[in-house]
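Two proteins were folded this term; both appear here.
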Amino acid sequence: YGWVALDVLAGILMINAVEYDTAWAVRLGGHVLAGVWIVASSLVSRSWPVRVVGVITGVWLAGYSFAGTLLAEEFLRPAGIMILVWFALLAIFHRDTPSHPAAATGPAPA
């Protein structure tokens, strides 16, 4: 949840007229955490489309944070679109995993 907290913080900083460069740096810090989360979540997926799109998205998002001073903000836009595609793939390829056998049996009869 760290990336969500930093993204909300960046938004609040901008609303309260904190210098843009400061708020943008906070947002990019959140993008590093979000990128790590997306990559880690994708690598444990059984679906190869989720893995591929997730790794590309996470690396793009986190990587921009380190190269953002050299690149225009427009280079970050594809990552936003890819996140939406990744979420859609998660919804499409989601499979319920069987619960633990002990949890499925319920309480022991009296």
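Next, the second protein.
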Amino acid sequence: MDRMGVSRALPSIPKDSLSAAIVAISVSTELVEEELKPYLDAVLNVAIERKKGIAHQVAESGILPVLAQILRRKSTLTTHTAKLVAELARDAPVREQCFETGIVSALVTLLLSQDQDLLLHVSQAIARICYDSNLQQERFLRLGVVPRLVSVLLQHSRNEVLLSSCLLALCNLADMGEEDGSMLSWEEGANFGEGERLFHGTSRYSFGLTSAVTVVRLKQWTNGQYSVTVEVLQRCSTTLWGTNIGRQTGHRLQNFPHLGSCPNLYKVIKCSVKNIPRNRNLRAAMFHTLL
């Protein structure tokens, strides 16, 4: 429907066609929400199936700025569109255009919502967009995403799925996470200080012989002010350690050089990222956030 309230003809191509859906979304300002939703569904279904070439087709179609506009409208389609963006963000061609098209800023704004379903899709999208990209990580940090993620995490810590998504987003912002976090299982650990929250994410590889533990530590310094520290620890099972010690007593493990000769089997990597970094390496600072 246009601004004068007059309905216009929809594209004459079949609704189940990805091309038809992209055309319809590109003229979304001329459609009412009920007309637009089936086209968003069509793109979402193809995105979930991860059909070859869809990422390039979407990136080249010009609909990403339109999706950003829909997110800003905060309508009944907002959650649906956030879910679509989160699925599309699995692919690099889409991730690379999320800042220039306005999707990044729209997602950061939506973190102020109280809708937990919406927050889940938004945090998933953020985690995927900034995965393995220092440029996107810095852009999010400059927009103040850290305090908003921490706020969501603290407010909805009983929502395990949302909690996991926010923790993954913080890890990916620190360039210390995974693409989708499906192999991570999070649990809250014991706190050793007042105003501190500790979360452990475990992931197993090589049939359980080696594993990685991601530790996210939230430390409250003053009222509403937190620091966020991300650590990744690599370890192997005691059985595997004993087997290799028997073969290589007194020597560094030849089969597992990444473990070095550290007696407690851990390799610790600390990450410090300022909320608004300037000419800093993302692995050299600590998140400082004001809620």
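The radius of gyration is 22 Å. The mean pLDDT is 76. These notes refer to the second protein only.
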